[in-house]
Amino acid sequence: MRTITFFLVGLAVHVVFFISIFDIYFTSPLVHGMTPQMVPLPPPASRLVLVVADGLRADSLYTLNPNGSSRAPYLRSVMEERGTWGVSHTHVPTESRPGHVALIAGFYEDVSAVAKGWKENPVEFDSVFNESRHTWCWGSPDILPMFAKGASGDHVYTHTYPAEEEDFASTDASRLDSWVFAQVKLFFQSAKSNSSLKASLNEGQNVFFLHLLGIDTNGHAHRPMSQEYLDNIALVDSGVAELVSVVEEFFGYDGRTAYVFTSDHGMTNWGSHGAGHPSETLTPLVVWGAGVHHAQRVTDPQSYSDGYLQDWKLEHFRRVDVNQADIAPLMASLIGVPIPVNSVGVLPLLYLNNSDQFKAESIYTNAIQILEQFKVKMTQKKETTLSFFFTPFQSVISHALEGLVYYHTYDRFFLGCSVVLGFVGWTSYVILLILKTHAGLRRPPSHTAQLCVCVTVVITVFLFIQSSPVTYYIYCLLPVPVWYSFRSVSWLLGCLCLAAFPLMPVVGREPNIHLNVCVYISTRFGHLCTLMYETQQMLHVAVCAYVPNLTHSSLQQKQGLPLFSQIISWTTLGSSMLVPLFSSTRLFHRLLSIFLSLTATYLLLSTGSEALFPPVLSWLMYVWINIEQEAMLAQGVSGRQEYLNHFVCGHSLLCPLPLSSFDPASVYCFLTVFNPFIMGGLMMWKVIIPFIIVMCTFETIQVATQLSSRSVSPSLLFSFLLSCPQHFFFLVQDYGSWLDIGTSISHYVIVMSMTIFLMLLSVVTHILTSRRLILWKRRKMHFT
């Protein structure tokens, strides 16, 4: 009963601190209650055309072909003659939704949107579309609906193709962009005979938004250096040229249309995005039309040291870089609508071709709009200091932005310290409990109860004065009873990496299908060494080694995903955890069956060196079993032949384990082999498979070293010990970089998820090793 209570308390502690990540980091930066601000002067443009080429890298557009010609001749001519160009710097995560939110709403994505898969609006926000008179959108069903849903009123109109068209295995993804251009052309043609639509189009403050997904889809399927990706850029360029012609003709060449061409994010050389590599964060920006500066030639060296100007042959044309969020106030100023109230973008004045008065009014409006956010945020934190408002006007915006970041992270350090103290206290408590229960140690009488009561009162009063939410009380008060439960215990544990696999890149390689064949050969050799057991599973592994090669060949020939590959993949995934249950419960036979079944699944997820990981890990596990057997024999304990032992299915998972009954070296090996999976960064199922292999091996060691008769899997207990030093290591490591959200959140979520997951996985592996399914029983034959 005490063990069950300890398990439940430990699980509750880890769940509480896991939830704390959402209060520390996943809080919305958005505030409400601001008054919209707009430039009081007439705008230079009546309408704006926004074209976003999803997944287009800056260098892919700006770099010339080997023969000196441009991949996008129309846009190149705009850059060199009648527009202003630059590089738009995006922020992580470099995904489609965050990129479009920055472009159209002017702020970097609300991190709380991760809870809804970056698809929905967890908190409503303002945007240029919402402030416009009318907005017409064409493109992907994944992007357009979120801006229509968040708009007040019914003035954002979306036209999307079916979601099934977004197929990475498609023969030609550029048809998505062709569809958009065709629909826009039909729209303006129909408007000529539709008087009400024509009247709406001729009003001011209208926006036309074209979302082009073809380049991103071709980049994922064929990579950015492929001919399909480059051909799609040429198609978009010709489509933009035709679009400008259609729009100008419809409005009678009145010179009142502004055009913005950009991208939401870039893409790595291997066809992925989401991180902060320059290939993902550098996107093109080309602006021309009403109210925009024409191209300006320069003779002096420009203040960019990245070398791109020379590579792109654009060193003689002025380059104006911006942050991605700066595009929103630029578009708002061009058509005379209020800047989105949640925008943190700074108006890039070098793009505007207007009077000095208009520029001054525009930047003043931008400053007031950002200060409105700061005042609301400051009011929420009950601060009254406004001293920096009296700084020179040119620094008001930068100070306000710094203030927004300060108040958004106001409680982060305090909560982080509370969580660190809680984890250190819980670690020490677990160690003390083990020593007290199994080593006969007793704690001396303590007289710190009064001190703990005083600390609790002080923390409660402090949180009450701050009007903190209830969850803050839990995070801050939980360490008090935990620290009260022990006096002084120190803990130090080093973890070794498993060979070189964590150091190998998990992305960015050319597919190496031959490695899958090597895995099959090595697996086949191991199979022959076991007297031809599990023949059917070996054939299954051979088929799974062939499937990636078949799929790769089919996608290269643009034939889509083969039906055979789909059937094998889904069948393998669904049966991988069931097939071992039909094998013998003899130790080595069951382990071999588990290894073959999981290797088959792993091969389907591998195209490179990681395919060799399961055989190497399984061999290491085999060595570990033999080391444990030899250690038992060296101690004079009568060992049993592990190959002949059976897994036992009757022992309890929650029985206490005598501390003197197992070798500390086993604990060290257990923790050592687990650490590579924490930092490997593979796909989720590819992480689960090594966990299962290691934990099944640990179950085997219990049986082979005669521990199962007195206790059961200590992995449940070790899951706490495994997590504790890593909690402390990761949290202290990130102590000085709380603002490095990507690193801190990743480490914290990985460790917390692994701890909770490991406790539950111990039950699964116990069932996997000890249970057996029998479809039918052999009938006994009696002879007379």
From TrEMBL:
It is a multi-pass membrane protein. The keyword Acyltransferase does not apply. It is found in: Endoplasmic reticulum membrane. Keywords: Endoplasmic reticulum, Glycoprotein, GPI-anchor biosynthesis, Membrane, Transferase, Transmembrane, Transmembrane helix. The keyword Transferase applies. SUPFAM superfamilies: Alkaline phosphatase-like. It comes from the Eukaryota. Pfam families: Phosphodiest (PF01663), PigN (PF04987). GO terms for cellular component: endoplasmic reticulum membrane. One of its GO terms (molecular function) is mannose-ethanolamine phosphotransferase activity. Pathway: Glycolipid biosynthesis; glycosylphosphatidylinositol-anchor biosynthesis. The chain crosses the membrane at residues 6-26, 385-407, 413-435, 447-466, 472-501, 563-582, 594-613, 683-704, 716-733, 745-769. Residues 486-632, 659-737 form the GPI ethanolamine phosphate transferase 1 C-terminal domain. InterPro entries: Alkaline_phosphatase_core_sf (IPR017850), GPI_EtnP_transferase_1 (IPR007070), GPI_EtnP_transferase_1_C (IPR017852), Phosphodiest/P_Trfase (IPR002591), PIGN_N (IPR037671). Its EC number is 2.-.-.-. One of its GO terms (biological process) is GPI anchor biosynthetic process. Ethanolamine phosphate transferase involved in glycosylphosphatidylinositol-anchor biosynthesis. Transfers ethanolamine phosphate to the first alpha-1,4-linked mannose of the glycosylphosphatidylinositol precursor of GPI-anchor. Belongs to the PIGG/PIGN/PIGO family. PIGN subfamily. PANTHER family: GPI ETHANOLAMINE PHOSPHATE TRANSFERASE 1, PHOSPHATIDYLINOSITOL GLYCAN, CLASS N. This is GPI ethanolamine phosphate transferase 1. It comes from Myripristis murdjan (pinecone soldierfish).
